[in-house]
């Protein structure tokens, strides 16, 4: 659930809205890309720590890019740990990846093809024999699980060479971390039983394992094998503690949990996606509905639209029964090709899931209400600061990005009365100007944009922000005048004398001196957010254009590599990255590529990278 945008609100008020419960938080940049996923025992305390004074360089870099923070509230820190792992696997956030040992996620491998299978850490492609479990978010998580497995089920973890050459049991046997299959201290049947329980545990079938252990403990006690019964009792206790942490994993199965909350005319629908018993994550939606719409009607409308083009699981757990539930069930079943069930009266694990989803819907709703109120206040402050007759309903901002004049890109971002309107964002590849002439680039971008505005493709904005000072402002004024658009409020936004955030100057047409708003001005916070978003959008476009041009030019400049061979090479290696990593012999393995040409291709890429 989103708790509000950090860059357009007072950080203290933002942090104050965070719950103190355990959960998972996701740091997002201005484009909505997840930068980092973390877990916390106390979300407010943990997230607040990122805005203290003593931060590493890496954390400072991440914090400087945060525009929004989303949180998912869980019952325990253990649940947060598991959810964090699932989100990292699916989202691959930039700042989480940097903490991993490698670019690929680690797994646990069980060599089921062996007479006495080995349980081991594994990283790499999942090919060949064996059972793979994971992926895990880090090598630490794998090793922690392996240590846990040694205590629960003493399946060997030693190397095959070590295993084959033993004549007496090793230390692992002495400390009860291995059953000693290397020297025949356990029968193949007993070992296979431990392997089977290991598989069930790693598959999430903990209840089955507990039932087996409980039965074995009772049988051992009846045979007066009290030492064996005590071992089994300890295993059961350990597994019960683990199961408490795996609350969100449950018993398996695919289903969605959908919970809705309503307050002050705002609606929130929270959807949790459970696949194979694992919580893959959740998302909050804020559908618009006519005033007075009841929860049952809201949920019916949401479900019909949300699953119109999405795969439908066999079971939907709902906070309330939607209107026309039978009709919706039948329609979903027909579309899915199997029976789809709606359930509202649930018990046990499913009731806890629903409780968690409803709790997150309520927290997201309250946070959205607080965030909307803050955004409305900033719009009002902006109206006063710019002396507008009414609240601005549409604002656009332009920025220019290039590297020493190369591959210039202009951006246009749009904000409305609720925030960023990303569907109306546009980029312009600037051509035919003197490299590095920002005034000409701005003139071209606005001419192209407002020609389309005048043709009716886009509505006329109330305010247009230009990233730059008086020079860029006059270039914008000239471009808009040439197009024939009038009644636009143009505002230049330039850095202050020391270029520190919060010291920006506003340039208005007809005024010789800039307007300087206080650093804590809500209007200035909104302007900074809009300007920073335009800057980000321009830089992203420029980097993409520059990278594409450089990648393409390397192949195009190699004699003997025409369009057909370029296509053949890229297809063979799955893209330019694969080609740049290939050796001469691999390149020569492509049909029509001689070894001499392969050497030229290899040299072109590696000479280029060495010199850049």
Automatic annotation (TrEMBL):
It comes from the Bacteria. The keyword ATP-binding does not apply. Its main location: cytoplasm. Residues 257-477 form the UvrC family homology region profile domain. Keywords: Cytoplasm, DNA damage, DNA excision, DNA repair, Excision nuclease, SOS response. Residues 207-242 form the UVR domain. It holds the Pfam family UvrC_RNaseH_dom. InterPro entries: GIY-YIG_endonuc (IPR000305), GIY-YIG_endonuc_sf (IPR035901), GIY-YIG_UvrC_Cho (IPR047296), Hlx-hairpin-Hlx_DNA-bd_motif (IPR003583), RuvA_2-like (IPR010994), UVR_dom (IPR001943), UVR_dom_sf (IPR036876), UvrABC_protein_C (IPR050066). Residues 20-97 form the GIY-YIG domain. It is found in: Cytoplasm. PANTHER family: UVRABC SYSTEM PROTEIN C, UVRC/OXIDOREDUCTASE. Interacts with UvrB in an incision complex. Belongs to the UvrC family. HAMAP family: UvrC (MF_00203). The UvrABC repair system catalyzes the recognition and processing of DNA lesions. UvrC both incises the 5' and 3' sides of the lesion. The N-terminal half is responsible for the 3' incision and the C-terminal half is responsible for the 5' incision. This is UvrABC system protein C. It comes from Thiorhodococcus fuscus. The lineage of its organism: Bacteria, Pseudomonadati, Pseudomonadota, Gammaproteobacteria, Chromatiales.
